[in-house]
Amino acid sequence: MKTPEIEASRAHRALLANLRHELRTPLNAIIGYSEMLLEDAEAGGQDACVPDLQRIHAAGRQLLELVNRILDPAKVEAGALDMDLATLEADLRHELLTPITAAIGYAEMLLEDTGGCVVADSSVDMAPDLEKILAAARRFLAPIGDIVN
């Protein structure tokens, strides 16, 4: 017989596992696109945009580590992550919003200054990949906004 407590615990674990997936997917896109852009910029001699791309990449990596720590899958499955929604909301807001805001800011600056960050051979336009990074960042923010609000 399934008790209400068992059902609630199962629903809580499913929510946290889904949230982890919803946060990790756009982060992997941010990390992947920033790596590709970094390689292109370094190969094309576009030194001006390398630091900002490195910052975007570092923010993506930092966020992935934070999501993995806050929503550790082993803890989720074991039911050891029995934090209340207020604690989860505080962790998400305080720890995740600053790095994602930085990544968004650097991507937006690079988009505004595409003249300085177009690879020299003109066959590589960074704008589409920067737009993908921004879209992924917005997808990352959506579940956080849902929880915070």
Q: What's this, in brief?
A:
With 149 residues, this protein is mostly helical. 79% of the residues lie in helices and 0% in strands.
How would you portray this structure in words?
The chain is an all-alpha fold and 149 residues long. It has a single domain, classed as Up-down Bundle (Four Helix Bundle (Hemerythrin (Met), subunit A)). Helices cover 79% and strands 0% of the residues. It has five helices and no strands. The longest helix is centred in the N-terminal third of the chain and has 40 residues, at 4-43. The protein starts with a helix and ends with a helix.
- What is the number of helices? 5
How many structural units, i.e. domains? 1
Mean pLDDT: 83
Helix content range = over 70%
User: Which spans have pLDDT < 50 for at least 5 consecutive residues?
Assistant: none
CATH architecture: Up-down Bundle
DSSP strand tally: 0
Rg measurement, Å: 18 Å
Shape: elongated
How would you describe this structure in keywords?
mainly alpha, 149 residues, single chain, 0% strand, Four Helix Bundle (Hemerythrin (Met), subunit A), 5 helices
